Amino acid sequence: MGEKETAVKISNLNKYFADLQVLSDISLDVKKGEFISVIGVSGCGKSTLIRIIGGLETLTDGEVLVNGETVKKPSRKVGFVFQDHRLLPWLTVEDNIKLALEKGTKDTDEIVDKYLKLVGLESFKKAYPTQLSGGMAQRVAIARALANQPDILLLDEPFGALDAITRISMQQELQKIWKKENITMILITHDIAEAVFLGERVVVMSSRPGRVKDIIPVDAVCHYQRTGSDFARTRDRIYQEFFRDEEMPFAYNI
Fold first, then answer.
1. DSSP class of residue 210?
2. Please, which pLDDT band fits residue 227 given cuts at 50, 70 and 90?
3. Could you tell me the pLDDT band of residue 245, with boundaries at 50, 70 and 90?
4. 77 vs 67: CA distance, rounded Å
5. Main-chain dihedrals φ then ψ at residue 152, nearest 5 degrees
6. Over the stretch 153-169, which tens digit does the pLDDT of each residue have?
7. Whole-angstrom distance, CA of residue 77 vs CA of residue 156
8. Distance CA 82, CA 72 (A)
9. Which DSSP helix (H) or strand (E) runs through 129?
10. Where residue 2 falls among pLDDT bands split at 50, 70, 90?
11. Of 4, 37, 238, 243, which residue is least crowded by CB atoms under 10 Å?
12. CA 53 to chain centre
C-alpha cells in the first residue's frame, strides 16, 4: 500500500498577539484519515493552533495547507467541535443540525437522520437542547459538524466540561465515528489518557510560546485497553515529556 496523502501540512508556523509570541516554529504533517491528539499545558497555544488550521485565526508567518490549499478562511470541508456544544436553545435538535447545512442542500431530513443515528440520538430529533444531558448535547454538536461531510474534523477539548464517566463514554463514541467515517481528526486536549486512547500519534507541545516538543506514536492496542501495559508505558512517556525542562511549581517523578 502507498503512503497516505497529506490532509494538513503546517510549515514553520509562528503566531504573535501584538508582542506576545504564542506559537513558535510549528511544523506538522497530518495524513488523510489519521487521528492526531495535540496536548499541552493551559496557555501553550494549542487552541490557537487549531483555530489557525480551521481558518478562524490568522498566522503571523509560516504556512498551513489543507488538502493542498493555503488556509485563508473557514471552509465547510473543515468541521469544528468546541468545548461547549453551542446549540441554539430555541431550535430543536434537527433544526440545529439543519441550520449548519449549506443553503440549498438537498435531502436535509435524510442527512439529519443519518448523523443522529451515527451518534445514537435519532429518537431525540424533536427535543430541545435544554432537554438533553451534557453528553447528549455534545453528540448533537458532533452530528452537526459531520453533517456537511467535512474532510477534517477539529475538536477543541470537546469533552472538557463533562463528568469523568460521560467523558469516557464520549471518547468511545468518537472513536467509533472516526473508524466508521474514516475522517481526519485533530483533537486538542489537556488529558493525557484521552490523548493516548484516541490518537494514533500524540503531539506534545511546550509551554508558551508553544512549540512541538515531541511526536509520540501510539500502538493500536492502546485504543482498546486503557489498563494494559502498553497504554501505561505510552502515558508515562508523555508525562515525562510534559514535565521535562519545564518550570513547574512542584516536583514530579515517575
1. B
2. confident
3. low
4. 10
5. -135, 140
6. 999 998 887 888 888 88
7. 17
8. 20
9. none
10. low
11. 4
12. 11
Query: What is the C-alpha separation between 59 and 215, in angstroms, rounded?
Result: 22
Please enumerate, as own/partner, the contacts of 64-73 that have beta carbons within 8 Å and a separation of 24 or more: 64/8, 64/9, 64/10, 64/11, 64/13, 65/6, 65/8, 65/9, 65/10, 65/11, 66/7, 66/8, 66/151, 66/152, 67/7, 67/151, 68/6
Cα 236 off chain centre by: 22
CA 17 – CA 242 distance, rounded (Å): 25
Domain residue extents for the chain: 6-77+151-243, 89-149
Pairing of strands 152-156, 184-189: parallel
* pLDDT for res 155: 94
Residue that is written with C-alpha cell 516536583 in the block: 251
Architecture of domain 6-77+151-243: 3-Layer(aba) Sandwich (3.40)
- Amino acid, single-letter form, for residue 20: L
- Cis-peptide, bond into residue 249, ω within 30° of zero: no
Task: Name every residue whose Cβ is closer than 8 Å to that of residue 90 and which is 6 or more positions away in sequence.
Answer: 128
- CB of 127 closer than 8 Å to CB of 155: no
| Nearest-angstrom CA–CA distance, 188 and 22 | 16
3-state secondary structure of 4: coil
